[in-house]
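User: Predict the complex.
Assistant: Input components as received:
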Amino acid sequence: MTNQNAAASPNDWSRFRIIAHRGASAVAPENTLAAIARAADLGARSVELDVMLSSDGVPVIIHDTDLARTTNGTGPVAAQSFDALTRLDAGSWFGEAFAGEGIPSLADAVALILSRNMALNLEIKPSPGEDRATASRAIAVLAEAWSDPATLVLSSASIEALAVARDAAPQWRRGLIADIPPPDWRDLFADLGCANLHCEASTATPSLIEEVHAAGYRLLAYTVNRPAVAATLFKYGADGIFTDDPAAMIAAFGA
Ligand code: G3P
Ligand code: MG
């Protein structure tokens, strides 16, 4: 596989300005290969995906720790082997056109993203107690495929996972996810070597954005599906937004 992102400039942040959240999840089942492909078709330059582990330690792309909402399975993701997870239908809940769409492995998702010349924000979203293992196994998969640090951001709400990322893959930028940034976010950033704060859109106030920028970091806001809200955030100085509807955002702001 050729890494078509290899020539990207490390200082070109524009590819992360509009990030397709869980893929193009407004028009395809979230966190599937179909959602990634649709994001690329719509012109998105980056996607955000959530990764957790199967019971046998394979990184898979799924948001919830329980299978019920987005698949025809039930119970914890962490209780199922990779083989069992790959037999589930992760598309029918969204629409019959997506029947048979599976839960992708991280490896397959990465291969598709690279083949479509997109950047990736991988959110490490561990099942309970799996923080370190999820980060280290996801990083091991990425290390096999991803060569350009400019096109990859690892993020997590888990301090443990970010610490593993800092130690195992310092070359990849890290983002701390916090709906509401904790008062000690600066200390966490210093300790974890984070570059970005990823926060819920309503907490991305002009003063927070100014504080983050003054400290030398970037701020990305989630989840923003109305162009008017995105316009306000960009006016405040937000560096990027996560959106389920990249088509609407690209129409409003360009890719
Ligand atoms: O990474 C940004 C956003 O995806 C965090 O929230 O719950 O959608 O994974 P969530
Ligand atoms: Mg996420």
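Residues 48, 50, 123 surround magnesium ion (ligand 2) (CB under 6 Å).
Let me know if you want any component modeled separately.
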